[in-house]
Design brief:
Strand content: 25-35%
Number of strands: 8
Bound molecules: coenzyme A
Helix content: 25-40%
Largest sheet: 8 strands, mixed
Strand order of the largest sheet: 1-2-3-4-5-6-8-7
Radius of gyration: 16 Å
Shape: globular
């Protein structure tokens, strides 16, 4: 059964800092394969346009489920595709995108995360839009996406990562569980419906330098 394919994310999560083989494979191929779990983490390149429709579906699901992003529900398919076209246009030296798909390179896409590399601070990067489809949450996919991102970031010399998450949200708890530490809080950071705002926690994580 699907629910048991990733049996113990804590045990089996690819540790960014303790799996140099996985890291070097990821660097070489852009793929971190977890065949035991049926989930593959893959870095998407600017020419991988075939993933655009699934990424649009993922964003729409995320906006409609969590209401925690800068998008307001309902999010149209046009707006979702427009967002991802913008992301693809940035992919390259300063921006990276990973996705999680089931059962290999052509399986359904369940999650994604982005890393923006600070242009003038070569030790730093910002994690953006970690999203796991609402049907697939709790299977260790978010952990694996973050592990792949952190592994690659460390190998690129980006030892300080930052991100924001809604204060007192499940996602902030997940990040703290994954070793992220709060640095500050930004009042009224995110827009909600009816012009309401939501505070956000700023979190950071220091990655161990790879030799
Ligand atoms: C936050 C989110 C990305 C997590 O993805 P996920 O695939 O469900 O997470 P995982 O199953 O990998 O769980 C991650 C870890 O957090 C733990 N965890 C889960 N819920 C938790 C909670 N409420 N508090 C603390 N830890 C929690 C899990 O046990 C797991 O730890 P482990 O790997 O040591 O077992 C996902 O829920 C999501 O997409 N939410 C909506 C969008 C969102 O809020 N994104 C973040 C915006 S920055």
């Amino acid at each position: 059964m699907q629910a048991f394919e990733i049996s113990s994310p804590a045990q089996n999560r690819p540790s960014a800092l303790s799996l140099p083989d996985a890291a070097s494979t990821a660097l070489r191929t852009g793929v971190v394969d977890r065949p035991r779990h049926g989930i593959q983490i893959r870095r998407i390149q600017a020419h991988d346009l075939q993933w655009l429709p699934a990424l649009a579906d993922l964003l729409i699901d995320s906006v409609h489920q969590s209401h925690s992003s800068d998008f307001l529900a309902p999010l149209s398919r046009y707006a979702a595709l427009e967002y991802w076209h913008g992301v693809y246009a940035k992919l390259g030296a300063g921006h990276a995108l990973w996705m999680a798909c089931e059962g290999g390179a052509h399986g359904p896409l369940h999650g994604a995360v982005q890393l923006k590399l600070a242009a003038h601070a070569h030790h730093r990067g910002e994690v953006q839009r970690l999203m796991v489809h609402s049907r697939e949450q709790g299977r260790g996919i978010g952990s694996q996406l973050m592990a792949a991102l952190e592994s690659t970031a460390a190998s690129w010399g980006r030892h300080l990562l930052v991100l924001d998450a809604p204060t007192d949200s499940a996602s902030a708890s997940v990040f703290r569980h994954l070793g992220w530490r709060p640095s500050s809080e930004a009042p009224g950071f995110s827009s909600l419906i009816n012009d309401a705002r939501r505070d956000a926690a700023m979190l950071y994580k220091r990655l161990r330098r790879q030799s």
